[in-house]
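Subject: Sanity check before I submit

Could someone independently write out the structure tokens for this chain? I want to compare against mine line by line before I put it in a report. The sequence has 302 residues.
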Amino acid sequence: MTNSTQMALFAEEPELSADDPLELVRSADVIVLNSSGGKDSMAMMAYVVGLAAKVGALDRIVVVHCDLGRVEWEGTRELAELHAQIYGLPFEVRSRQAGDLLDQVEERSMWPSADVRYCTAYHKRDLVRDLIRGLDRLYARFWRRGIVLDCLGFRAAESSKRAKKEPLAQDTALTTRGRSVFTWSPILDWSDVRVWQEIANSGLPYSPVYDAGMSRLSCSFCVLASEADLVCAARLRPDMAQTYVELEARIGHKFKAKLAMADIHAQAQELGPVKNPARGAAMRRHLGDEVTDRYLSRIALT
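---
Independent answer below. Compare away.
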């Protein structure tokens, strides 16, 4: 499949292409925005909302946040909801009913990994798929199958695996006679600078953990995170880091193949707590003082 990712649903229906984002949004009956509360999903949300406003499709958008429970950064769910409220969009929360990620790690006696990402499968993907199935009523009246855009804030710069992804792909597990579901990563080729510029333009408040030194916002201690992010997280959440250390010892499985949580926690203890990071520090590193000061003045009014 080429990078244009053109797909025909039926002969009588238009082709969908990631190369024409406006027409893609115009063609959708439902647009699901996956919001983690992090910078990439914020930028994705602001971008897609802007497109939807241009084609009169704001009433087709629903925002969903998968709540990760105690492993999530404090205030993340509330921040994701605030983003939806600022745009006047409906907001849905989903979480795994059979226990959070640490419960599942204990049950399996193993941590997730790049090859076995059950954390994403059970705590995000499957929950959003259930939500999408429940939206059939919104387009059941149509003569044709409904078109659903499942929008993600994935970026190629995050990993080699994501760099190989197509921006638009059909979700065959969800597509039925009544619906065609497409996973869309509209900011796949964006740089960090462009992400931060979109946030600055949007005026959406971002999580303070970025100013404290975190480069990403997923669960606090993601097995795919860099060592620097993991140590930073342990400095910000020492009690949760200790919980991970105890679980690691209990199940006898190292957090990462080449890095134990015990070692991460030890590094964090040696460095000590993060000292009062300045608000806007993360944006300032990417966009400079003028843009950041203007942004901070704007969100002070939010």
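---
OP: Matches mine. For the report I'm noting this point. The first helix runs from residue 21 to 27.
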